[in-house]
Amino acid sequence: MSGAPRGLGATFFYMINEGRLARIDVRHAAVDLTPTVTTEGVGVGSTEEDVLKIYAKNITIEPHKYDENGHNLVVHSTDPTRGMIFETSQGKVTSFRAGLYPALGFVEGCA
After folding, report:
1. Is the distance from CB of 111 to CB of 40 less than 8 angstroms?
2. What are the structural domain ranges in the chain?
3. pLDDT of residue 16
4. Is 79 exposed, middle or buried (0-12, 13-18, 19+ CB in 10 A)?
5. φ and ψ at residue 11, rounded to 5 degrees
6. Cα separation of 72 and 5, whole Å?
7. For residues 47 and 39, is the Cβ–Cβ distance under 8 A?
8. Does the structure show a pLDDT above 80 at 86?
9. Intra-chain end-to-end CA distance of the chain, in Å
10. 18-25, long-range: CB within 8 Å, 24+ apart, which pairs?
11. What's the pLDDT band for 3 if we cut at 50, 70, 90?
12. Among the listed residues 83, 6, 99, 94, the one whose alpha carbon sits nearest the alpha carbon of residue 46
């Protein structure tokens, strides 16, 4: 089950698995509203360099499945059941998500 509430400068999608929130996706910031960012200040429109600098000790760079000019920047938590993934294209964050594995790793995600 998934949904798409709007607000706070972004479109949010959420994934429910077995009655529990498993993942939240932030797909794009609205032009005239305050962008949604992580507590470290990273969000849609941030650069790959920003993400790599802020999460340097806990990040893995993977190729993007659908965008040859993009990456998945996988931020590993101290808790291996959860994490964050920033999707990029041409050096900029296009979306990001946080949640629990295995839902976090689903490429197609929330619709």
Report:
1. no
2. 2-105
3. 87
4. exposed
5. -100, 125
6. 24
7. no
8. yes
9. 9
10. 21/99, 22/99, 22/100, 22/103, 22/104, 23/97, 23/98, 23/99, 23/100, 23/103, 23/104, 23/106, 23/109, 23/110, 24/97, 24/98, 24/99, 25/95, 25/96, 25/97, 25/109, 25/110
11. very low
12. 94
Asked whether the beta carbons of 73 and 55 are under 8 A apart, the reply is yes
User: Residue 10's CB: how many other CB atoms inside 10 A?
Assistant: 23
Neighbouring CB atoms inside 10 A of 32's CB total 6
- Which residue from 85, 54, 57 is spatially nearest to 70, judged by alpha carbons? 85
Q: Which helix (H) or strand (E) holds 102?
A: none
Assigned token pair, 79: 């808790």
